[in-house]
Amino acid sequence: MRYDYVIIGNSAGGIGCVEAIRELDEASSVAVIAAEKYHAYSRALIPYYLDGKIELDKIYYRPHDFYQKMNVETHLGVKAVGIDINSREVLLEDGVRVGFGKLLIATGGKPFIPPIEGLSGQKNVFTFLKLEDALGVKETLKSAETSLILGGGIIGLMVAEVLRRKGLEVIVVELADRVLAPVVDPITSKLVQEKFAENGVGIILQNTIAKVVGEKEVERVILKDGSELPTDLLILAVGVRPNTEVVRDTPIKVNRGIVVDKYMETSVKGIYACGDCAEIYDFVFGANRVLLLWPTAYVGGRIAGFNMCGVRRELTHATSMNAMHFFDFYIVSAGLNVPNDSDEFEVIYKLDEERKIYRKFALKDGEIAGFILAGKVDRAGIFLKLMKEGVKVTGFKDKLLKEDFGYVDLSEEIRWDLLADKVKLGVVYEYAAYEA
Amino acid sequence: MGCHLCEIWCAVAHSTSKDIIKAFLYEGQKPLPRLLVEESYPESFALQCRHCDEPECMFACISGALYKDRAGRVLHDESKCVACYSCIMACPYGAIRINPFTGKILKCDLCADLDFPLCVEKCPNNALEYVEIKTEAEEKLYEI
Fold first, then answer.
1. Are residues A139 and A103 in the same domain?
2. Nearest C-alpha in A relative to B94
3. pLDDT one-digit tens code per residue, A135-178
4. Most buried among A363, B2, B86, B109, using CB within 10 Å?
């Protein structure tokens, strides 16, 4: 079989690409290949599902008839294991070869499993990336009283919150000296740690698991400092790595992720990549890097889709950005994560200890290079816009710290420049549009 | 002039009764607007969702709650929203508000239940207008 467009991956990036292709081209043949058997679901919703905030039917990212309506053939539950760039075919694990005109690799990430003594074959150990993981955790929860989470990043902390709400004893073990270290600054980390302490979640810092003990099931863990903790459930949330297996033995260039240009094209013409498996240009960072972000995966897939159809579009303004919440504490951070005593950046911030509200901006050459809003995140997107447009904020920088900062705080010239619709018209959503 | 009537009427438009008195007095929960008026005396203006051609909020939405309908409106399916605020992070205009009662978001639907957006209809100063922007493709069709 052969298709005009083949997409490996059935998540944000793949869907972004399908929707872009169908906006431009109703007739060409499109196929989606994915290792997981499920209809397109949102990984980011797994904690909400486990929490009981949504039922399983709401975990799906698009309606059940999405691929029929889009006229897309699906090959789900069968893993792509290789790419033959000469015959332009994707090799599936069951021996089937799927030919393509243009290809998108959107294979996402895979959880990093740290080497821990005694870990292999234990039944009550989970990573937290796939729906299967959530279903497994859900089953184990029924009989669990204590839980241990290795990793104090966004995923680890979200799981910790859910397990705590389910009534379990929860302990988070983090190697760094604070939680969320890569995405927020020490003040924000402290606010988050206080929130978890208030809710009875234990956080152990600067430590890690040296060994797990138990036959078939982990019964207790031994930490690096020698202390022992009993646990009925162990979650490994120490990070996600780009899943680039499918391009092994091909000339497609891989650094940490699959390297793509601003058109999302890899080093091999006609083959594109996006999302967690790819490495893209971060305009604030000033270099390529892996950005494990849902919105960036979708937009990357969308840009790839346009380019695959011959409509030139560039991904120019990707950078790190995270919206997160723990219990009732909301945080949005974006751009560079700069320490408050930085020499290189001008940092302005305001912490309201009592109300637990924190705003912080890192400026470079008068432009915002990074920001954190914690406790109150209203209208955060305005700052991302100011970053993307490279607006000099020097003239009104003190106003950035106002909780109700808005367009009225900008000079009239900047304001109307930003509010005017600069988006090029011309793309009709005829095929992407569907009624929910 | 900063009268905030667009906010009042927006709240009414999204009430059950669509009646200003009933909406504010008898419907229980206070009706909430989806647009906002920004003010710094003597300046004031209404800021509402622009139903972007390339809606960043929809691209960022992790649950598929935000979607675009055939008319080009960016709409919000509240039953799918998990209040992650990715859209708040993404919207360049700060045009998505937070519902303090549910924690979920509130956004303009161009008065989906009505024939015409009430914020525009009720603006006493005609400061708001409702105009259709045709895409290039539609313009061409129109010429033919």
1. no
2. A379
3. 999 999 999 999 999 999 999 999 999 999 999 999 999 999 99
4. B86
Considering the domain architecture, whether residues A156 and A303 belong to the same structural domain is answered as: no
Q: Measuring CA to CA, which residue among A81, A67, A68, A90 is closest to residue A14?
A: A67
What six digits make up the tokens of B88? Answer: 């708040």
Tell whether A190 and A90 lie within a shared domain: no
- What's residue A436's pLDDT? 33
- Please give the distance of CA A388 from its chain centroid, rounded to a whole number: 20
Instruction: State the CATH number of the domain containing residue A410.
Output: 3.30.390.30
In a domain, A320, yes or no: no
| Substitution target from B59, B68, B106 for chain A, most A beta carbons within 10 A | B59
Residues B38 and B66 placed together within one structural domain of the fold: no
Write down the pTM of the prediction: 0.94
pLDDT 10s digits, A286-340: 999 999 999 999 999 999 999 999 999 999 999 999 999 999 999 999 999 999 9
Of A294, A421, A426, nearest to B60 by CB-CB distance is A294
ipTM of the complex: 0.93
Which residue of B32, B89, B134 is the best one to mutate when testing the A interface, meaning the one whose CB has the most A CBs within 10 A?
B89
| Set of chain A residues whose Cβ sits within 8 Å of the Cβ of B73 | none
The verdict on residue A245 lying in a domain is: yes
At position A203, the amino acid (one-letter code) is I
Do residues B139 and B115 share a domain?
yes
Structural domain includes residue A318: no
Report the largest interatomic distance among the alpha carbons of chain A, rounded to a whole angstrom: 68
Same domain, A104 and A248: yes
Cα–Cα distance for residue pair B95/B53, rounded to 1 Å: 15
Residue B96: domain span: 51-107
pLDDT of B139? 57
Q: Which two tokens stand for residue B112?
A: 């989906």
- Domain identity same for A283 and A382: no
Q: What's the total number of domains in chain B?
A: 2
Q: What is the CATH number of the domain that holds A140?
A: 3.50.50.60
All residues of chain A having their beta carbon less than 8 Å from the beta carbon of residue B67 are 433-434, 436
Q: By residue range, what is the domain housing residue A293?
A: 2-109+241-308
> Around Cβ B88, how many Cβ atoms within 10 Å?
25
Segment B44-68 shows an average pLDDT of 94
Distance from C-alpha of B24 to C-alpha of A341, rounded to nearest angstrom: 49
The four Cα atoms A310, A312, A316, A317 give a dihedral, to 10 degrees, of -80
Q: Tokens for B13? A: 């438009």
The pLDDT of residue A419 is above 90: no
Structural contact between residues A251 and A157, judged by C-beta atoms closer than 8 angstroms? no
- What CATH number does residue B97 fall under? 3.30.70.20
Kindly report the nearest CA distance between residue A299 and chain B, in angstroms.
Answer: 6
| Residue whose entry in the numeric block shows the structure tokens 């138990």 | A214
Compute the distance between CA of residue B64 and CA of residue A436 in angstroms, rounded to an integer: 9
Domains in chain A, number:
3
